[in-house]
Structure formats: C-alpha cells, structure tokens
Amino acid sequence: MPQLPAPVDEALLAPLDDRADDCADGVPPVVRPRLGAVLRRVSVSLLVACVVPAALFYTCFRLTDVWVAMAAALGWSYGAIAWRVVTRRRPSGLLYLTAAVMTVRTLVSVALDSTYLYFLQPIVTDAAIATLFLASLATARPVVARLAGDFYPLDDELALRPGVRRLFRRLTLLWGAIGAAKAAGTLWLLESQPLDTFVLVKTVTAPTLNGLTVAATIAAVVVVARREGLLERVVQPVPSGA
C-alpha cells in the first residue's frame, strides 16, 4: 500500500511563501550578511594575505637566512592564490596586491643581490600606497570604495548612498595617513637599528598597527552599516513565560 506524504507544517513554509511572493512581484529578496559573517571574511582575508606571510618570513629568517624567508613568504602568497583558483573561489584583491608587491620586492632584491633593498622597498611601497589612497580622494571612487566588494556584497545602489560614500572617503583618508606614518617610522627604524632588531620590531609593530586600524575600520563600518540597514539584525526569541 503506497505511503501518504507526511504533513508539512505551514509555519515552516511561510518564509518560503513570502520569498516566492517577492520573486513573483519581480523583486528578488534582499539577503544581508550578518556581522559575524563579515568579520570572518575580513579576518580570513587578512590572515591569508598578511599575517601568515609575515610569520613565515620571520620564522625562516631566524632559522635560515633572509633569502629563504623571501622565497617562503612569496611561495605562500602564490600558493594561496592557486588554491583559491583551483577550488573555484575568487582570491581577494588584498591577496593579489600582497603577492604583486612581494614579487617586485623579491625580483629587485635578487637582481641586485641586495637584502637592504628588500626591506627598503616596503617603505617605498607604503609611501606610494599612502599617496595613492590620499590622491584617490580627489576622484569619485576612492580606493576603499574599490576594495570594499572583497568584504561585503555591494551594488550600485549601496555604493552611491551618501552615508556609504562618506564612510569610504573617511576610511581612505585613515588608511592613507596610517600608511604614510608607517613608512616614515619604518625608514627611521631601518636606518637606525641592526637588521635583527629591525625585523623583530617590524614583525611585531606592523601587524599591531594594522590590527588597530582594522579594528577602527570595522567599528566605523558597523556604525554606518547599522544605520543604513546593511547588516541583518538577529532578533532573540522571547520566552513564553516572559
């Protein structure tokens, strides 16, 4: 005797019915990521693109020499890009940028057989990137607006909101100023300290400064995102006895 289908709870189908009604009206449902998902995405991007290469470089530098450290950090960046491509996941713009900068640093240092240039180039790069960030404030799309899509799904409607545009400009100014200050401080450190001290201090201070800047960035983003309704609010169920 054929089995009858099990009854379906209509309450479970209500959200699907609402979404179907939205699609029937020609308006696709808007899905906003939760804050936790955005933070995980940012954390993973920074970990893969910045933290792991720096840790690899310092470890190999202490155990072997600077040339092995260069190869290890660069190899990690290319391996991370290749892994994401093979697994059909788009590498972040930050990962591409880090790999490109490290490639130029390594090639110049090897070509000129100078480890000093390897450490000098990031200073020049920080200064150049800071200049790029600050100069982009004169354009319609500052640098942060171009990179924001790596961390949050943006469309033209969101990107053109006045509050979001102000946020992008302020964050571009923040990162440009931090980059300029970091370039100046690192240059002083390179010229005044032994190489071992320089590598140790830079390995500690650079991630710390970047982490503080990221924390300030996230705090500003959360404030604006809540105001603009871009983060899903989690409503806690009220106990029946309350």
From TrEMBL:
Transmembrane segments: 42-61, 67-86, 93-112, 118-138, 171-189, 209-225
Tree of life domain: Bacteria
Protein keywords: Membrane, Transmembrane, Transmembrane helix
Protein name: VC0807 family protein
Protein species of origin: Nocardioides oceani
Source lineage: Bacteria, Bacillati, Actinomycetota, Actinomycetes, Propionibacteriales
